Amino acid sequence: LSSQERSVRLRRWYELMVENKDGLARIITAENGKPLKEAQGEILYSASFLEWFAEEARRVYGDVIPASAKDRRILVLKQPVGVAAIITPWNFPSAMITRKVGAALAAGCTVVVKPAEDTPLSALALGELANQAGIPAGVYNVVPCSRQQTPAVGEVLCTDPLVAKISFTGSTATGKILLKHAAGTVKRVSMELGGHAPFIVFDSANVDHAVAGALASKYRNSGQTCVCTNRFLVQKGIHDKFVEKFAKAIEKELHVGSGFDAKTTQGPLINEKAVEKVERHINDAVSQGASIVTGGKRHSLGKNFFEPTLLSNVTTKMLCTQEETFGPLAPVIKFETEAEAIAIANAANVGLAGYFYSQDPAQIWRVAEQLEVGMVGVNEGIVSSVESPFGGVKQSGLGREGSKYGIDEYLEIKYVCFGGL
């Protein structure tokens, strides 16, 4: 299809998602438990990637470069890489698909989507709407599989020579395995892997704003997002006030319950293994001297529900500050100097997102540039948007998604030397 035809069909797919937003949101809540209001927000966010890349499809520009020889012209073309294998996680079962697939289809690629074994229905629902939008058969393909078959299916997608590109969102450990598989055929690879986001609150910060940002960043999707805060670093002069206000906000504003209950802000974790990791991190921290300010145990609603938890007196030697928890646990570390905070924040081998609150303009510039992450929130706890490039540094991944840069991951640059002129 021409770029204009691809644009029109992606736009129609976007419109159908918006028309069916309530049904799609209910599928997400039924699959992974997130509160219905959050699921509705995900669907609109998810659809926006189809809208964005419908527009970007017509802006894949080549180039003409002045040649050193008079009888030559240098042309640069951008062409689709080919078949793209898309492997997505359960925490955003719709948005993680459209962010990749929107770019791939806009570029002219076909895709094979392997959704998370916990959340295949969202991918299949998107496929039904793709059909209704006129996306040709064989362009958007979904391969659901069981947990037992996932490693084998992933290996096939990464090793088959017909697949030209791998895009994966998930853990760093799994990403490394897929990279090894993809190396055999030297595939194009983009990956959004694990995070360990620091959230720094400096003495100059507006505490109320910082608490609001902390609440949004930490407890969205019950702490099960790649960019949610994993370590809170709070400067000595403001530490006690922040902890006190943060605890009150958690107790007042967060409500654990079924995702289909309108009052719920915190749904269940994805499975019991996730709950056990939160418990392990809390037990380890408490055994080393941390204090539970609020929460700290499973909720009475059921085995996969956990109380939003806040820990103080936390050190960098505790598991919760060394590993990504992926749950509703907020550990707070007290620090004294800016240099100390930067050193703690950058000690991780991953760098996806980072956040800090300050009202000192010079400090804002220094810290934003020094944090070793792909995305920085300055006085802001939520940074994701369709217009901005999403991705990390170090072991948090390769490449960027969304924004004007996202489509480049699915394009090859071809140089044409036109001679004899």
UniProtKB/TrEMBL annotation:
It catalyses: succinate semialdehyde + NAD(+) + H2O = succinate + NADH + 2 H(+). GO terms for cellular component: mitochondrion. One of its GO terms (molecular function) is succinate-semialdehyde dehydrogenase (NAD+) activity. CDD domains: ALDH_F5_SSADH_GabD. Its EC number is 1.2.1.24. Residues 2-416 form the Aldehyde dehydrogenase domain. Pathway: Amino-acid degradation; 4-aminobutanoate degradation. Keywords: Disulfide bond, Mitochondrion, NAD, Oxidoreductase, Phosphoprotein, Transit peptide. Its main location: mitochondrion. PROSITE patterns: ALDEHYDE_DEHYDR_CYS (PS00070). It is found in: Mitochondrion. GO terms for biological process: gamma-aminobutyric acid catabolic process. It is an enzyme of class 1 (oxidoreductase). InterPro entries: Ald_DH/histidinol_DH (IPR016161), Ald_DH_C (IPR016163), Ald_DH_CS_CYS (IPR016160), Ald_DH_N (IPR016162), Aldehyde_DH_dom (IPR015590), Aldehyde_DH_Superfamily (IPR050740), Succ_semiAld_DH (IPR010102). It holds the Pfam family Aldedh. Catalyzes one step in the degradation of the inhibitory neurotransmitter gamma-aminobutyric acid (GABA). Homotetramer. Belongs to the aldehyde dehydrogenase family. This is Succinate-semialdehyde dehydrogenase.
